[in-house]
Every structure is written in structure tokens, then in C-alpha cells.
Amino acid sequence: MASKSDPKLLSFSEARRAVEAYAARVSPSDPELLPLLEAAGLVLAEELRADRDFPPFPRSTRDGFAVRSKDVRAVPARLRRTGEIRAGASEEQSAIQVNSGEAVEIMTGAPVPAGADAVVMVEYTERSGETVTVKRSVAAGDNAVAMGAEARQGDVMVTRGTRVNHSIVAVAAAIGRAQVAVHRRPRVAILATGDEVVDINLRPGPNEIRNSNSYSLAAQVQAAGGEAMILPVARDEADELALLLRKGFEADLLLITGGVSMGKYDLVEQVLASFVAEFFFTGALIQPGKPVVFGEVALDGARTPFFGLPGNPVSTMVTFQLFVQPLLDGLSGAKPRRLPFAQAVLKADFSSKTGLTRFLPARLSGAFEKPEVELIRWQGSGDLMASSQANCYIVVPPEKEQFRAGENITVLML
Ligand code: AMP
Ligand code: MG
After folding, report:
1. Test site for ligand 1: of 212, 213, 231, most ligand atoms within 8 A of the Cβ
2. What gap in Å lies between CA 154 and CA 123, rounded to an integer?
3. Model confidence pLDDT, tens digit, residues 191-209
4. pLDDT tens-digit profile of 228-269?
5. Among residues 91, 180, 196, 359, which one has the fewest Cβ atoms lying within 10 Å of its Cβ?
């Protein structure tokens, strides 16, 4: 067990790996059957299998003419138009046989008729009466997808543990699933601490500030597929803190903000240690967010993970993305998502020398094939205005000091 006097200070990647390892061990919440659109954003508790072949018939991918590729090896080739097949054609209408020297007019999404092995795009044909002149050759299979080429009936199209995004919704819809089994949203209790912190519907005194962290965290929790429960703000007082922590441990995960730094009234770790708590780390070599704490409490026969996130609003947001999100993925039944790193060209010089991996609010702009990034001027990790203007963080490795305009730099997307 680690505490403030016995710190477990990890590098960024060690801390991230510690969370990922823990996330791989947790059991996800129970499955429930939800209407398809309510399942979006949650994680599949079942696999989705093809209820028939995909495509269910050989499908034309172009408007044009279904032909025998042999007939158009030498072009221009003159063929006889013998009919038409449109998307959704009845079996009878699509039962046309394409013989040598023949072409059948066909639409995108229509079944390629027997005898034909390819489709010539209408752009490469000329029609006069019932004669079609094909001006470009096609190879067998061109502009058509064979029946079952995407998936065979019974094949697993999407595995259990996949988060339902719009593509997964499309698969579920295509196999006729109006409801799918997903894991219930993990419940995440959020506890803000601090004598200066007041709830947003109260008027703050001159030296007080409003509780923005509980709300930014709740928004992040919801976006990550969790269900947020905001607890009342805890004073910097041990007994009150203990009471609210106990309440928070009823959830699947407890997030505490504030009170984890080195100040005299930063009581969170101390009070946590009065429970049966294990600390996996009590700090990470990052900035913002260095005092971040990750651990687990055993209470009433259950083990509940918790994070102590530093109270500075930008620290809270960054540490959520870096460390809380992968655990939420695990609790939701999924593998932790990769962090969305990207490369961009730096617009202006800057220097940094901290020995920490830094995540600095920044703005990505530039043409889409040439992303450029610049730092946002900020007053440190309490600067909400700066973070509200950011759409990414510049990732500063601990050992590098000078950064020059024009060089490639790693960014973490929001
Ligand atoms: P702490 O981590 O408790 O030392 O707090 C660091 C800074 O974050 C202080 O300036 C706090 O006033 C501020 N802070 C702490 N909790 C919150 C909160 N819930 N909402 C907004 N700011 C906070
Ligand atoms: Mg505090």
C-alpha cells in the first residue's frame, strides 16, 4: 500500500498501462436488451451474426450493363440489349439469362443476372435502340459483389465487446436487429472536494469558486458511455469526506476531484487510506495532472476502483481522458480505446523543460491534408477559458526542450 509518505510515482506510460491492466481484469456490468439507437455508445454483450448472406444476391455496384466479360475483351464491342433489372427487382424480373452477345441494363443495387459476370459502367457505353456499344473492357467480377462475399449466413459480423458506433448500428439494422444486448452503463460517482467550492446554483462568496469539475467530469463520463452521479461537494474535513466517499463507493467507479496535492488540507489520500484501500499509483510524471491517484477500496465485500483527480479544471479533464476513460471502457465491457494521437506541423517555436510528459491545450487547424497546431496561451491548469478554446493537446515528451516551427509534433485529440 502506498500513501503520501510512500509515493508511487509512475511515468505517463507506466500509469496508463497500470490502468489498462486493471481494466482488463474488471467484470463489466450486466447485459440488457436495448432498442438499437439507445444502444449506440454502449458495448455489445453479444455477437452480431449474419442472418443471411451479405450481399444476399450478386449485387451490381454501378449503373450500367451486365455483360459476359469475354464478350467485351475487344472494344468497341456491340451487344444486344435484352432487358433491364432495377434495384429491388422481383425474382421473376431478375431471372433474365445473359447469353453471349447480350447485355442487360442494370442499376446500382440490382442483382446481376445469371450468365453475366461483370457490369460495364453506363459512362463507358453508348446506346442506340437495342444496340449497346461497350467502349471499355471489364474483367470478370468488375462492378459486382458476389453473393456472400462480405459475410456468409451465420458468420460473426461484429464481436462481443465492440462499442456500438454508427457502423455497428448499420450492421445491426442490416440483420434486422431492432434491439441488441449491451452492457449497462457503468455508474460513476463524482465527488468534488474543497472548502472554496460551491455548487453551481449557489452564489459564490468573494473567495469561493463554482464547482465546474463535477459537471465537466459528468459530461466526460456520459460521452464515454457511463452514467454520472454527482455527489454533494465535500468540505476539506476528514469525517465529512469519509461519509461522502462511502456513498461514492456504492457506484462502479468513484471519481474524486481536488484534495490530492501536497497542501495541508489535501485530505483525500489520507482519508482513503482509512478505508481498506490499495493505491496503484499516487502520482504520474505528467503535467497537468501530476498528483493523480488510482486505487481500489474493499468495502462490504465489494471492490470499487477510484481515482483522485487533481482539482485544477484542466488537470481534471486531462487525467480523465488519459486514465479514467480506459477503465470506463473496461467497466463497459470493451477493451480500452487507443488514445487518439495524431501528427501535426507546429506553427510557432516554444520551449519546455519539466521532465514531465505535458499535455498543453492547443488548436489544430490548417488544410485537412496538412494539419497545423499551435499552443493556446494559458494561465496554467486552472484556465478554463484556454481549455474551452482547445481542440487538442500538444504532447510534450519529458526529455525534449526546444520545439521549432515547421517540425512535426504529436497531438492528442479531444
Ligand atoms: P486542489 O486539487 O484541491 O488543490 O485544487 C486545485 C485548484 O483547483 C484550486 O485552485 C481549486 O480551487 C480548484 N478546484 C478544486 N476543485 C474544483 C472544482 N470542483 N471545480 C473547479 N475548480 C476546482
Ligand atoms: Mg482543494
Report:
1. 213
2. 38
3. 999 999 999 999 999 999 9
4. 999 999 999 999 999 999 999 999 999 999 999 888 889 999
5. 91
Residue 121 has pLDDT above 90, yes or no: yes
* 3-class DSSP string for the chain: CCCCCCCCEECHHHHHHHHHHHHHHCCCCCEEEEEHHHHCCCEECCCEECCCCECCCCEECCCEEEECHHHHCCCCEEEEEEEEECCCCCCCHHHCECCCCEEEEECCCCECCECCCEEEEHHHEEEECCEEEECCCCCCCCCEECCCCCECCCCEEECCCCECCHHHHHHHHHCCCCEEEEECCCEEEEEEECCCEECCCCCCCCCCEECCHHHHHHHHHHHCCCEEEECCCECCCHHHHHHHHHHHCCCCEEEEECCCCCCCCCCHHHHHHCCEEEEEECEECEECCCCCEEEEEEECCEEEEEEEECCCHHHHHHHHHHHHHHHHHHHHCCCCCCCCEEEEEECCCEECCCCCEEEEEEEEECCCCCCEEEECCCCCCCCHHHHHHCCEEEEECCCCCEECCCCEEEEEEC
| Residue 209 CB–ligand 1 contact under 6 Å | yes
pLDDT band at 4 (very low <50, low <70, confident <90, very high): very low
414 CA → ligand 2 middle, Å: 26
Tens digits of residue pLDDT in 385-406: 999 999 999 999 999 999 999 9
Q: What is the pLDDT of residue 3?
A: 45
Protein residue closest via CA to atom 8 of ligand 1: 312
Find out whether the beta carbon of 192 lies less than 6 Å from any atom of ligand 1. Answer: yes
Phi-psi region of 154 (alpha: psi -120 to 50; beta: other; left: phi over 0): left
Q: Does residue 231 have its Cβ closer than 6 Å to ligand 1?
A: no
Average pLDDT over residues 13-26: 97
Task: Pick the atom of ligand 1 nearest to 291's CA.
Answer: 2
